[in-house]
Amino acid sequence: MRDQIDRLQQLRQLDGTIRSLSGAVSARETDLQRKVTEENLVREALSSEKAMLGATQSKRRQADIEVETSRERKAHFEKQLTEVKTNVEYQALLREIATVEKSIREWEDTVLEAMETEETTQKNVKRLAADLAGKQKVVQAEREQFEQGKQAADQQVAGLGEQRDDLVAKLSVPVRSKYERVRQAKGDSAIVAVVNGSCGGCHYKLPPQTAAEVRHSERLMICEGCGRILVAARGSDG
Ligand SMILES: [Zn+2]
Fold first, then answer.
1. pLDDT at 61 (0 to 100)
2. Which of 2, 122, 164, 231 is the most buried (most CB within 10 A)?
3. 94 or 219: which carries more pLDDT confidence?
4. Which residues pair with 209 in a beta bridge?
């Protein structure tokens, strides 16, 4: 039984290594995904700022036209001033001129406001474009690094998987079928070490007798709390 339990020990360590390799890959993938999301946010901000700039520019052009048109109307009224015959007509024209002057001032204000917005928006566009370029560079570099790392980890996992298959094949039929059953329920953490007298899987406090039997490796011990296979902790496992 002792050699069977030794193999289970090795199996547990292999599963742990495989799990941490896969875990590291998915952690890096999550990190990369987060950076891609940041890049997309900047891209969206840039595109909305560009839309804002376009709208502001067209608003300013429209206001420029209005200023021009109003000035022409004012000139037209001023010319009429020299031609009217009655004071009533003259007063009416002065009122028209006052109205059109007010309108010119308002359109000029609109032009100024639009120019200010344009200036700010242009700065934002420039800043966001630089930010986006930087983020794209980072994402691209990290993506390449990630792909390389993933490839290496996949190869390593495949190699470990073969070692694992060999080990499983060397288990006795009862131990193996027990192991396969627990593995179906518990996945990669089917075999756990006893840590300070408790199950390393569910932290169930084991009866001293069970803990002693695990230490002596005389028979296959199962945690009463979670049903995992218990092995003695050894070496750096504590
Ligand atoms: Zn347990």
1. 98
2. 231
3. 94
4. none
Measured N-to-C along each axis, helices 2-81 and 173-186 cross at an angle, to the nearest 10 degrees, of: 20
Mean per-residue pLDDT, 118-138: 98
Closest CA to 116 of 167, 56, 171, 70: 56
The pocket of ion ligand 1, defined by CB under 5 A, consists of 199, 201-202, 204, 223, 225-226
C-alpha–C-alpha distance, residues 232 and 221, integer Å: 10
- Whether the per-residue pLDDT at 71 is higher than 90: the answer is yes
What is the predicted pLDDT for the residue at 238? 38
Whether 187 has a pLDDT exceeding 90, the answer reads: no
Residue 7 lies in a domain: no
Domain that holds residue 180: 172-238
CA of 213 to the centre of ligand 1 (A): 15
Q: What is the CATH number of the domain that holds 24?
A: 1.10.287.1490
DSSP-derived pairing of the beta strands 229-232 and 191-195: parallel
The Å distance, Cα 106 to ligand 1 centre, comes to: 79
> Ligand 1 centre and the CA of 2: distance in Å?
21
Domain-located, residue 3 = no
State the distance from the centre of ligand 1 to the C-alpha of 10, rounded, in angstroms. 19
Ligand 1 center–CA 188 separation, angstroms: 14
Number of domains observed in the structure of the chain? 2
* pTM, full prediction: 0.70
Cα(204) to ligand 1 centroid in Å equals 5
